[in-house]
Amino acid sequence: MSPNAVPTLPLRLGISSCLLGHQVRFDAGHKHSPYITQTLGVYFEFVPFCPEVAIGLGTPRPPIRLVDVDGSIRARGVKDRQQDVTEALIAYGDTVVRQLGSVSGYLLKKGSPSCGMERVKVYDSASGHRLRSTSGIFARTIMQALPDLPIEEEGRLMDPRLRENFVERVFVYHRWRCYRAAGMTPAALVDFHTRHKFSVMAHDEPAYRELGRLVANAGGGDLEAIANQYIRVLMRALTKTATPKQHANVLMHIMGFFKESIASDDKTELLEVIDAYRREQLPLIVPMTLIHHHLRHHPRDYLSAQYYLNPHPRELMLRNRI
Ligand code: SF4
Questions:
Q1: Which residues form the pocket of ligand 1, taking CB atoms under 6 Å from any ligand atom?
Q2: Rounded to whole angstroms, what are the CA distances from 264 to 254, 267, 272?
Q3: Does 78 or 258 have the greater pLDDT score?
Q4: pTM value?
């Protein structure tokens, strides 16, 4: 299937409403993230959910927290310990899962007993002492039901590597949804895989080989099962942050396509830049820019088709800081 036949779906992210500035927090405040609304918002439509408001807790409301009750994590009132909204949050999460077929990622508010992705404090129900940390109840419901969906917390977006990783995953998953919408065929799966080879190689070499084996069987097996397994392995692989060493290995691999056609001083320059990037003396954008330069002068269709070279909009400048 030609990539041109793949439809373009709206690029949507589910999100905790308070991150958009909606005044839905327990204190009637918000946690507006300018980076999300003003930078990511240029490229993404947001689909907001506030589970605590949705289950009728109102705004403002007495706060809730996670407590351990005989080994079971419950969402209970901080003051009114009889108040237990665990089941309501799970039920609402199940409802939202059914609405998330049109989103390509989800951004959660950190630390929330409902929305937190990780490190949400859990207290002992009797003593009130902090015991450990886990995911919020609503977030856990979403993550368990949709393990392939890219999900991240807004706090972690401040880390340049995690931010780039999340946005890359969203775009990969979005392209997958577009391919799916066009109707999956063995040829489409091969095309999708071919264009993401270097991306997955940068994150997880063993997964790269596993995905290759899956795709090789696409023509003769249960395509639906293979496609489901493919995206599961791919999305799990991409959650592993690509290190400078892994990126440098892929860049060297790409350089191999040019080595016969570029002048020896250009080759030396590219090698030096890749090495400086590997030693974290330069950001990834520098060797990538040189690669693009050589690709313009020595076109290679196979390379031009690689999403690794253009994983997300350049204007987001995600590779300028990693
Ligand atoms: S963290 Fe979640 S539950 Fe809390 S205010 Fe934000 S959207 Fe609502």
A1: 16-18, 24-25, 50-52, 109, 112, 114-115
A2: 16, 5, 12
A3: 78
A4: 0.96
